[in-house]
Amino acid sequence: MSLATSASYTLHLLFAGLWTGSVLFVTYGILPSARAGDLNAAPLEAITGKLKTVSRTSAVLLFLTGGHMAGTAYTVETLTGTSPGHLVLTMLALWAVLMGLVEVGAAKLTSGAGQKKVRSPATEAAPFFKGAAVVAILLLIDAGLLAGGGI
Known about the structure:
mainly alpha, 5 helices, elongated
């Protein structure tokens, strides 16, 4: 395995863990406190800003590293005609869904920051983050299946 491919695998795994873990933490660690009114708008806005940075950075790096890995390990025929290829394509679709859910959820979460609102934006953002949490878990399951050689 080349150095570039090894680096791609390492970066891919690191940022996949960081992104999915961040989404899960915000969903189950931050949102319940915000919905209960235990957080002020300023810290919630700062946390959400950091989540967006992690999400956007991870999305770009995962696309680049995943593209490199897929380009070196698969052909069009193996992507579309094998179980591991299908897992890669599923991962790409889940990646796009996760990116969209986090962006919408984060926008809803910070929508009341100017008015110092926390509870109602957190309530509006909750379904998007819960969906993102499910997608994050599905991505990790997909990655585990792919690492095991497919289904």
